[in-house]
Amino acid sequence: MGEASSRPISARGPTTFSVLPRGVKHWAKVKEGLAKWKRERKKTQGWFESWFNNSPWVTTLISSLLGFLVILILLLTFGPYICNCLATFVKECIGTVQLLILKQRYKELDTEDQEYEKSEYQQ
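Now predict its structure.
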């Protein structure tokens, strides 16, 4: 450190004073370009994006409500169809169970008995 400060200014390289004017111009151009980019972006922004820039909580609220409404509309649209399918399925299952119960209550006839009965009826 002491060695760097003992060297003459011309040997140290550019100082902040010699870089500063060029840096200020450069940063002014950068700021101007950024402002131009922001203006162009604002022109091409959609309505939803502009709402988000103004108040981010409103967009969250709107998207939450829209999701709820979409689900509600889908339920109201397809709900009756789903209920009918479930009711039909349950009725078929109950019918099958009833048949099984009826089969268990009554004794099945042997095949020989059935053949005997057929022969009696045919005569």
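The CA atoms of residues 57 and 68 lie 17 Å apart.
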